[in-house]
Amino acid sequence: MATTLELMTELVEIMQIRDAAIERFDETDDPEDLRVYEAAEHRLDQWFEHDAPAKVAALMALRDKRKVDAKWRKDEAGRWRAAAKRSEKSALWLHDSALALLRRAEAATGQESLALPGGRTAAVRVRRGQPVEVTDVDALPDEFCRIKRDPDKAAIKAAIKAGQVVPGAELVETARDYVSIKG
Q1: Using an 8 Å Cβ cutoff, are 25 and 37 in contact?
Q2: Considering only CA atoms, which of 22, 19, 45 is closest in space to residue 33?
Q3: Do 75 and 56 touch, CB atoms closer than 8 A?
Q4: Distance, CA of 76 to CA of 84 (rounded, Å)
Q5: Angle formed by the axes of helices 4-28 and 31-47, nearest 10°
Q6: What's the Cα-to-Cα distance from 18 to each of 23, 40, 181, rounded to whole Å?
Q7: pLDDT tens digits for 152-170?
Q8: Is the pTM of this model over 0.70?
Q9: Using an 8 Å Cβ cutoff, are 114 and 105 in contact?
């Protein structure tokens, strides 16, 4: 009998083959990719046929691993966003420092540009713009504002449960089975 890890590995391998084949087929319409996809689907069907207790354990272990992976990826995305902000701040500081140094060199030498290594030159240029600064959002006329409609689902649910008809909304019954493992 296969171990949980072996069953997980086998399942992941089949899923990867299936997913890669359908992705390629979506891009190329190559019938061979469709054949590989269908063969992987058949292998999945066979995988589910026997040894339910061991396969449920493997599925749940893989689910738990994927949940941990998802949390790690979300955390990592947050770290990357923070690192990107730090890099942007650093780039701005470096730019401002170069600008200040150029202005000092210009004041000291009277020259409008500075010769850099490699035959390049640097000079201070002024980029003009006219950004809009909003001083009072509430005073702006409606035609200068974007309004996002965001349904208040909690209020809609409460109104419907209280017997009110809410056009464009309805309560739907949902049920989702879940696996409970004890012991």
Answers
A1: yes
A2: 22
A3: no
A4: 12
A5: 160
A6: 9, 5, 29
A7: 999 999 999 999 999 999 9
A8: no
A9: yes
Residue 36: both structure tokens together: 């590989």
Structure tokens given for 142: 């409606």
**CA nearest 122: which of 141, 136, 138, 109?**
109
Q: What is the 3-state secondary structure (H, E, C) of 7-64?
A: HHHHHHHHHHHHHHHHHHHHHHCCHHHHHHHHHHHHHHHHHCCCCHHHHHHHHHHHHH
Own/partner pairs, 51-60, CB within 8 angstroms, 24+ separation: 51/1, 51/2, 54/1, 54/2, 54/4, 54/7, 55/7, 56/179, 57/4, 57/7, 58/4, 58/7, 58/8, 58/11, 59/11, 60/179, 60/181
| Amino acid identity at 20 | A
The amino acid at 173: E
